Amino acid sequence: MSQNADTRPARHADRHSRFPKSRVDALTDGVFAFAMTLLVLDIRLPEDLKIDDGAALTAHLMSLGHETVTYLISFLVLGAFWRGTIEARRSEEQVGHTVVGVSLWLLFLVTVVPFSSGLVSRYGQFTPAILVYAANMGALALLVVALRYLDVAPERRSLAAAFGQRLPLFLVSALLSAALGFVAPHAALYAYFLNILSRLPFWPSTPASAGRS
Predict the structure, then answer these.
(1) Per the record, GO CC terms (predicted)?
(2) In this structure, which of 4, 48, 135, 209 has its CB flanked by the most CB atoms within 10 Å?
(3) Between 68 and 191, the higher pLDDT residue
(4) How many CA atoms, within 13 angstroms, populate the side-chain half-sphere of residue 200?
């Protein structure tokens, strides 16, 4: 009985343990930077490619258009998600274990982006590649929502504020891309360009979500 009494406070303390926010932020920045750098490695010409003249080189460079579009979309998406993780954060120096856990799952999905991006870059004409990429993007968006929700004071938590004005559109674009993957895989990736709408002046904003990505 005394042993249980001794370990109960320890377990209770662990549930309420706090972690240095600066270390979480440093890991987040590093993982995002690494993943964003890896994306560009998928844009490359074959090593055994034989080029006879400038016209041939131009033709091969033009053939990298799909890979370049995939890289651009993925880079901008990761940039937006990184921005979303640093906006509307608490000013406290420590965060709870739940926020750390969500952050780690978010970073795990960030490290998957180079894989899903490479997959859709090479095999974007096939439905499974489109679905893997859309699932990666959608899961990232939902975890950013969870992080925004948890990483504010409890009395200020709001799902509407956590979603903001732009993440719902991003989720719609991911779902639309997945749907297009069944009927027009070649065009599915372009659904993500819908997110440009949220950057235009006419897109609605509220004080609760102003400045969020």
Answers:
(1) membrane
(2) 209
(3) 191
(4) 8
